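Why should sequence recovery work at all? Because a backbone constrains its sequence more than one might expect. Tight turns favour small or flexible residues, buried strands favour hydrophobic ones, and helices have their own preferences. The token representation captures these environments compactly. In the example below, the structure is given first.
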């Protein structure tokens, strides 16, 4: 391989590794996020992870025992929702500057975000590689036209079909 091409490929691979490391740090920072909330009367507290899954539920004191079951359930559900909102806000704050273009925080937090597509979209070839590929394509096109060795040219549908191909179907010798 030519040294110039190898250097350009090394540059592309370094950029890919840099993007991969950045996305890995982003994922790790999301995994560390939690959200917490405590009910208005301070009877219940809830902690959730970045996905909104409950990681802690605590009943404080004994006053919650005097509540009707439906009322206690409403307090628990409302407190869970507050904790989930707290986690969503924390995720947004921690990653807003780092999100790949078009990324939805809800998809990232839920695990539905396609990180592979994000890496593919985020990595662009250096201009020197794009220029090299363009010059290689132009060079191949020039060689095809000159009759030099190279990939075979394709048959243009507007070219007349050779008489032998129509008489024998082109498969017989």
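From this structural description, the recovered sequence reads:
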């Amino acid at each position: 391989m030519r040294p110039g091409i190898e250097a350009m490929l090394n540059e592309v691979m370094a950029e890919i590794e840099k993007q991969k490391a950045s996305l890995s740090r982003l994922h790790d920072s999301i995994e560390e996020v939690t959200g917490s909330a405590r009910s208005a009367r301070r009877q219940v507290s809830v902690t959730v992870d970045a996905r909104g899954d409950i990681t802690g539920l605590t009943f404080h004191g004994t006053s919650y025992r005097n509540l009707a079951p439906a009322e206690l359930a409403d307090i628990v559900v409302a407190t869970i929702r507050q904790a989930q909102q707290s986690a969503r806000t924390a995720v947004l704050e921690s990653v807003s500057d780092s999100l790949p273009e078009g990324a939805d925080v809800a998809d990232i937090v839920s695990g539905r975000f396609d990180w592979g597509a994000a890496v593919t979209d985020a990595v662009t070839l250096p201009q020197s590689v794009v220029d090299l590929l363009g010059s290689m394509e132009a060079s191949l096109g020039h060689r095809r036209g000159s009759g030099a060795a190279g990939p075979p040219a394709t048959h243009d549908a507007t070219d007349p079909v050779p008489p032998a191909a129509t008489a024998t179907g082109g498969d017989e010798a």
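A few observations help interpret the result. The beta strands are 34-38, 44-49, 54-59.
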